[in-house]
TrEMBL record:
One Pfam entry name: N6_N4_Mtase
Keyword terms, alphabetized: Methyltransferase, Transferase
Protein name: Methyltransferase
Record-linked Gene3D superfamilies: Vaccinia Virus protein VP39
Gene Ontology biological process: methylation
Domain DNA methylase N-4/N-6: 132-196
Enzyme nomenclature, EC number: 2.1.1.-
Family: Belongs to the N(4)/N(6)-methyltransferase family.
Gene Ontology molecular functions: methyltransferase activity
Length: 206
């Protein structure tokens, strides 16, 4: 899971931002069958031509939120995008999204097609009173509901997910709920402390 900083704030401003993130993508491609790269659409579009050779574009995902409180005059931003990149031999698990009736049909060999989840995930931004219990104070925290389908689609129980710019640790929280393992990192001590508290990890084990 790669949700980079927005080239401002913690992480600073880099003139070579696109090249830097591309180099991280290349390294992730060596260790992971699936990569999810997050960003605003206009930034993410630049990576479509920079996909590591070992991987292909499996899906362009959109996170759609209606509750952005922006007061800028004009269009109110309501989307974040995510490139799902994967190797040709990697496994996808659309069956993880079947309900009990569909699972029953599948067991009887009567499921005629596998209805996967939609590539647009609608979930509100964690602002104000929305998702109060989930909010950690991290300025760019993603809702767990947004990461859940991604992890469900590309992993099974016991698999390992790496998030090198984990922010508030959403990947870790979702992995814990879903019985996956996670390795998390962040450049900010303040955010690592947020993760530690959120996941109740003692300082000596962080
Ligand atoms: C968009 S936020 C991630 C938010 C996260 N997905 C969540 O749900 O909380 C990006 C994070 O990247 C971190 N970051 C910036 N530069 C980094 C670097 N070189 N190495 C590791 N983390 C970095 C920032 O501190 C920030 O927490």
């Amino acid at each position: 899971m790669l949700d980079p900083w927005y080239n401002k704030g913690v992480g600073g401003v880099r003139a070579d931002y696109i090249e830097y993130i591309t180099s991280i993508l290349e390294e992730l491609a060596e260790i992971s069958d699936h990569i999810y790269l997050w960003g605003f659409p206009e930034v993410l579009a630049r990576f479509v031509e920079r996909i590591p050779r070992s991987h292909q574009l499996t899906a362009w995902l959109t996170w759609y939120y209606k509750n952005n409180p922006s007061v800028i005059r004009g269009w109110r931003s309501a989307q974040n995008a995510c490139l799902h990149l994967s190797t040709p031999s990697s496994k996808l698990y659309p069956e993880h999204f079947l309900n009990s009736a569909q699972l029953e049909l599948k067991a009887k060999g009567k499921l005629r097609y596998m209805p996967g989840p939609t590539s647009v995930i609608e979930s509100p931004l964690l602002v104000g009173f929305v998702g109060r219990k989930e909010q950690t104070g991290h300025p760019a925290q993603k809702p767990q509901a947004v990461y859940e389908p991604l992890i469900k689609m590309s992993t099974k129980q016991g698999d390992l997910v790496f998030d090198p710019m984990c922010g508030s640790g959403t990947t870790g929280a979702v992995c814990r709920l879903m019985g996956r393992n996670a390795v998390l990192a962040d450049i900010s001590d303040e955010y690592v402390e947020i993760v530690r508290k959120r996941l109740m990890i003692s300082p000596e084990n962080a």
